[in-house]
Amino acid sequence: MTAFSYRTGALHAEAVPMEALAEAVGTPFYCYAATAIETAYTDFAGALSGLPATVCYALKANGNLAVVRTLARLGAGADVVSGGELQIALAAGVPTEKIVFAGVGKTAAEMAAGLDAGILQFNVESLPELELLSQVAQDKGLRAPVALRINPDVDARTHKNISTGKAENKFGIDLDQVPAVIERAAALPGLSVEGLAVHIGSQLTETAPYRAAFTRLIDLYRSLRTAGLPLRRLDFGGGLGITYRDETPPDMAAYANLVRELTTGLEADLVFEPGRRLVGNAGILVTRVLYVKDGAERRFVIVDAGMNDLIRPPLYDAWHEIVPVREPAANVDWAPVDVVGPVCESTDTFARQRSLPPLASGDLVAFRSTGAYSAVMASSYNCRPPAPEVLVRGSEFAVVRPRPDVAEIIARDTLPMWLEPADGAGEPIGEPIVVAGKAALGARGRSAR
Predict the structure, then answer these.
(1) 226-229 long-range CB contacts below 8 Å, 24 or more apart?
(2) CA–CA separation, 361 vs 293, rounded Å?
């Protein structure tokens, strides 16, 4: 977390003071450090040097256009799981031949978009998906490049909600089903089965699960090649963890050495899909203390960020280090408090009985390690505008996703004609639309006169 440090008693992102950002953009806000993102990518890609490797950043970790472009300019590809993420990758300048389309529920329209773009491969996770992709490709007169995502039934030893490689999970094709899927794929037009893929989960903190999963995938790859299937690519997914609290995830050298050991003599291009590892520790969420409330049994620090801004603690019971933006004096007494948000839910709690220095209304605090699976999972619950996102580089900063105002949130709704404001009450929202001479709901949601 060297991108975020105290300078002259105040927390900075690179050379930008968080107090100045709070004044400029208001709170809460996300702040990403470009140099931290770039360093994480170069460390990852550099460890794999000498291997036939393509690094495809997993947009689901953080899909901000500026973040994706930062990585694309370094040579990163993209792992996308929706048509929207595909559009972000293309808009960010990711080369189409470095885009992998994953996910268990691709629609025909999303498949068509991937085919039109000319992406590297579709990671197919079921026989019905394979059949639909064949039909979409055939209708376009194209061949879809396919990697079969295998479920190796390996315990990633991570949180149950982010484990994806066990037999009980919804992801991938079970090993015993592979022969039937291969046979069916051979009979379908418009497909080119070019590889195998695996992804066993997120926030892995040891290499043993990778060894087990990769070994099973490589053994299957060798046997299918021996049987005559012209495979040429292995997708090892992502999932390498970061330090949130006291974890010690594998360093990149250990991970890369494992890959080298297992793939020696193997004729295969390799694909990797890191997400959290590249951006997780490159972001913080800065929030302001609203109140300090003494309850019957504990003290509550109520901040202006809510679970709509950062849902990881309620969703995963996730730990984020919480630090004051103004560096505390060495001799102050720390005490346990509950750090909570303003959302009308008991689950809107970021930390329980967390030891913190004295805080008062108006103070700023920062939640560390919020560069991944944080802003990207935000909502407008309670009609709360999501926090804006800021990217810093050196002493410069830019708002790369502004905070929407409440009027923008309300403008997404329309009123049906029977709720049209009467006698001039209320504000018009838009204009009516007439289709084929009949009144239709439009932006205003009322019948045309």
Answers:
(1) 229/182, 229/193
(2) 10
Q: How far apart are CA 214 and CA 237, in angstroms?
A: 10
Rounded to two decimals, the pTM is 0.90
Short-list 366, 384, 386, 368, CA closest to 376: 386
Considering the domain architecture, whether residues 128 and 241 belong to the same structural domain is answered as yes
Tens digit of each residue's pLDDT (9 = 90 or more) over 263-317: 999 999 999 999 999 999 999 999 999 999 999 999 999 999 999 999 999 999 9
Whether residues 245 and 177 share a domain: the answer is: yes
Please report whether residue 119 resides in a domain.
Answer: yes
Strand partners, 13: 4, 16
Give the C-alpha distances (Å, rounded to integers) separating 110 from 94, 103, 113, 114. Answer: 17, 11, 5, 6
- Average pLDDT for 57-72: 98
Same domain, 269 and 349: no
Co-location of 239 and 348 in the same domain: no
Shared domain for 220 and 269, answered yes or no, is: yes
Is the same domain home to 45 and 168? Answer: yes
Tokens of 33: 């450090």
Cα–Cα distance measured from residue 408 to residue 28, given in angstroms and rounded to the nearest whole number: 18
Check if the beta carbon of residue 444 is closer than 8 Å to that of residue 428. Answer: yes
Active site residue 383: no
Match 């963890």 to its residue by tokens.
241
Residue pair 98/272 in contact (Cβ under 8 Å)? The answer is: no
CB 284 within 8 A of CB 374: no
Is there a domain that residue 447 lies in? no
pLDDT category of residue 202 using cuts at 50, 70 and 90: confident
